[in-house]
Protein: Membrane-associated guanylate kinase maguk
Organism: Holotrichia oblita
Amino acid sequence: MCTFSFCSALSRLLTSLQQANELPSTDEELGFLSDLLQSKELHALVNVHNKIITNGASDKFFPMLSTSVNVMYDVLEVIAVRTHISDDCKELFYLLQKPHVQGLLCAHDAVAQKDYYPHLPEIPIEVDEDEETIKIVQLVKSNEPLGATIKTEETSGKIVIARVMHGGAADRSGLIHVGDEVVEVNGINVEGKTPADVLSILQNSEGTITFKLVPANGKSTIRESRVRVRAHFDYAAISDPYIPCKEAGLDFCKGEVLHIVSQDDAYWWQARKEGDRNMRAGLIPSRALQERRIILERTFDKDKENAENDDFDREHIATYEEVAKLYPRPGIYRPIVLIGSPGVGRNELKRRLIDTDPEKYKTPIPYTSRAMKPGEVNAKEYFFVTREQMEEDIEAGKFIEFGEYKGNLYGTSADSVKSIVNSGHVCILNPHYQALKMLRTPQLKPYIIYIKPPPLDVLKQTRTALNAKSTFDVNSSRGFTDEEFSDMIKSAERIEFLYEHLFDEQIINADLALAFGQLLASANRLETEPLWVPASWVQ
Ligand SMILES: Nc1ncnc2c1ncn2[C@@H]1O[C@H](COP(=O)(O)OP(=O)(O)OP(=O)(O)O)[C@@H](O)[C@H]1O
């Protein structure tokens, strides 16, 4: 790289321009070029460029981190709910949101990640046109993996760098790029060898590893994407037979939020766990790949079993959901939706939460087509409407749930939920799980808590101890039967299978006091902490 002589190269070019009388250009073009070469702006840019290159080469200026933008977002998140603490906090909160401060941090990261343009040619001044340029890269072997994968290029049979993992040793060196051809490793020619052979050379080397590489044409710089997703499946690289390199895999569990740093490869994305300080990204299956696997799995399962399970089909294939943080909005609270199998205890939990502060927590008043009984007041226990009116509104999709009991219609309207939210209260609902699709909208932004029954023996024991009343038989006040307990668990399995990807949280309702404590903590968290929601709710 001819970096140090860049300024002198500029002046030499300028002098030769002034002497060049025979160039086939007009005076106007020469004048323009000469003005450009003498302009203050270009000189300032060259200076900046030279500084970056010289300082970048020195260990003294090694960046402390290359993701200050992420740190800025983390800090924003922490102080967003604490601006009342002090004026300094408030000032920092506003400062960090200023475009020029964010621009500065972005520029810092671009420099730290060596993501700056233009790339000066790495070709030495004396180039033999017929000879391929070779670069020699030395890395010191440590416990950390190299952070790059290799493959055999189909057409040429050569070993090439398939991918460079974000933040890994190869990426940080800035010297190894996707498409570079590997010619030698530690003096051993790799021609005709398989990637596995090369891997074993690497594994058996100690100390410094020397690569002889033919640089790829059109080197690509890796820019980090800002996409965050919530995973809807568990992943363990060790048991994935198709991952190109198990060591490079990133394991995760259902529900975890991942920062997708690169989606360049159609099948293998690079990701980090959100909040993980480890800068090295790992490989995870892309959405397309995972969807394909799920479809295949389901076809296989269907073939194995019979048509009996048809109604258990889930039309939605849950792999990753793009998410973003939603900051609490004072005076507008997200509705809390309790989902679970009949009898699991949602009413009990809802009632207890409302009892803590009836002025704050409200539940929608249901509609009914049944006649008002003496002593009843409209809009107290129910909104009383005609059957025709209710049927019309159901048809128009105005009810989040409805049903018929003893010839009368009952239901909860979406407008009732909206009006509770708009009046600054916390709406708490325990609808049938089928209502979830209608409720989970960008307008309502519900927080969905799944109330899960404990294992059968604990379920029986806890309900018997508190003399729980069965909800399966409205006409008699008795405890749950063994069959009802089993049905509760079966129904829970079905709900989880169908809707687990929509749950924000799960509470196991074993010990009632503990379960309620967890619900109360979640309700408080909703008001104070930024939480992940589908990205489309935030835009
Ligand atoms: N953790 C628990 N331990 C013991 N009893 C419980 C527990 N949770 C709930 N119960 C009791 O179980 C019974 C049924 O609870 P609840 O009415 O809340 O169920 P539900 O989920 O609302 O049912 P449904 O949807 O059928 O109306 C009640 O008597 C309640 O007090």
In short: Confidence is low (pLDDT under 50) at residues 117-127, 307-313. The CA atoms of residues 364 and 417 lie 6 Å apart.
